[in-house]
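[recover] target loaded
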């Protein structure tokens, strides 16, 4: 049996894209998965696909901006599978990026979902995990490491996820909880296509400069299986693959 077999996980934003791929990859390795998403239909489709392949999963409606919903997802894992070992804080949005010109812009919601919800979910996960600890994977973005003028709010939120994750390195020794963050380049998902447009996404696909959700899922599995990774940041790009990075500024003496 796979080393992860018998564990239980909660994956947010699992109704499509990266979250669906992560959920499927975990289930393929014998992990019981709570497929959580605000999109009930999407979560159920992911769950149905896992079950059709012989995996163990349940769907759970979850708005990550609601502490009650997050807590409910973690409690569902314990109720269904008897434990909770893995939490993937993957849910996120890109936003309209009209923060400077439109007073009704959704920029605050981007911060709420992409950063505040990750902090809240991590806080609740620390309480929900068993005495043996577990693993938390936070989905950030390459834009969190390399700022992009076209998406400053999204970049700020994702950079916050990186700083937050790195600051939790000590949890590995204190509580047996390893927190790491992944920073993907553009991934071929419905969210990316909505944000960038179909034409641009097609150009990236033709140029082989876009990642697949399965590549991200494979990286997540590797992190979970590696007990040496804690408080670390890993970027993944189509051109250079997986690279562990240390964004600490170098101070000249």
């Amino acid at each position: 049996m796979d080393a992860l077999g018998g564990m239980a996980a909660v994956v947010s934003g699992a109704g499509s894209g990266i979250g669906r791929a992560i959920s499927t990859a975990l289930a393929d390795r014998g992990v019981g998965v709570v497929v959580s998403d605000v999109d009930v239909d999407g979560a159920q489709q992911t769950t149905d696909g896992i079950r059709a392949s012989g995996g163990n999963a349940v769907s759970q409606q979850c708005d990550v901006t609601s502490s009650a919903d997050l807590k409910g997802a973690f409690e569902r894992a314990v109720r269904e599978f008897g434990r909770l070992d893995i939490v993937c804080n993957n849910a996120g949005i890109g936003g309209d990026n009209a923060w400077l010109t439109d007073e009704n812009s959704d920029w605050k919601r981007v911060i709420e979902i992409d950063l505040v919800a990750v902090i809240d979910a991590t806080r609740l996960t620390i309480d929900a995990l068993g005495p043996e600890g577990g693993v938390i994977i936070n989905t950030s973005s390459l834009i969190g490491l390399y700022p992009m003028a076209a998406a400053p709010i999204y970049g700020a939120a994702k950079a916050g996820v990186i700083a937050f994750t790195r600051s939790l390195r000590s949890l590995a020794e204190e509580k047996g909880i390893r927190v790491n963050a992944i920073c993907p380049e553009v991934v071929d998902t419905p969210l990316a296509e909505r944000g960038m447009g179909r034409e641009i996404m097609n150009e990236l696909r033709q140029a082989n400069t876009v990642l697949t959700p399965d590549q991200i899922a494979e990286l997540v599995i590797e992190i979970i299986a590696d007990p040496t990774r804690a408080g670390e940041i890993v970027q993944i790009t189509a051109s250079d693959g997986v690279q562990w990075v240390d964004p600490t500024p170098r101070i000249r003496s």
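[recover] notes: The chain has one domain: 8-185+212-237.
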